[in-house]
Amino acid sequence: MERLFFETKFLAGDAGAIEALAWPFGTPDRVGDVIEKGAFADAKMPMPILFGHDQNDPLGAWTDATEATDGLRLKGRLLVGEVRRADEVRALVKAGAVRGISIGFVTRKAIARKGGGRTISQLELLEASLVTLAMHPGAKVTSAKSAVRALEIAAAINRLAAAIRT
Questions:
Q1: Where are the domains of the chain?
Q2: 47-51 and 54-67 strand pairing
């Protein structure tokens, strides 16, 4: 049996830089909420990077928030080498065990949507957390894209190799 091994590198660099798509526009989260472009206009930076929305577990700070065409994009820095928990979570992200982003906010303006959920047009963004399972399925760490993409490619090659053997 032949084996192919891939090595992946950590997504966020040695300085702890990290990027995320914190909320994709145009699609609802798991409870049906949709946040419109413009709702994040008043986001104040820096903002804490937490783990699992635990206010007692800060890992670093988001320093840049941009409403791009596809959603709210965040850039920040994990305090690797300075905060032990940031080192631990960085290892979890590196391994692919933690890939999600979940935002903590206070709704300022919203309307109920037919069929459930809300359309939120104004909010106060308080924090964005690294999580194992995000409320919005499309909210994810994107600076890990190279590591995540390498894992996806390796899985595709393994599926192809298995198909060829049969």
A1: 17-165
A2: antiparallel
If you average pLDDT over every residue of the chain, what do you get? 86
User: How many angstroms separate the CA atoms of 107 and 94, rounded?
Assistant: 32
Closest CA to 39 of 77, 19, 76, 65: 65
* pLDDT per position as a tens digit, 94-114: 889 999 999 999 999 999 999
Q: What is the DSSP string of the chain?
A: ----------TTTTTTEEEEEEEETTS--TTS-EE-TTTTTT--SSEEEEETTEEEEEEEEEEEEEE-SSEEEEEEEE-TTT-HHHHHHHHHHHHTS--EEEEEEEEEEEEEPTTS-EEEEEEEEEEEEEESS-SSTT-EESTTHHHHHHHHHHHHHHHHHHHHH-
Rounded Cα distance between 136 and 44, Å, is 22
Alpha carbons 76 and 46: distance in angstroms, whole number: 9
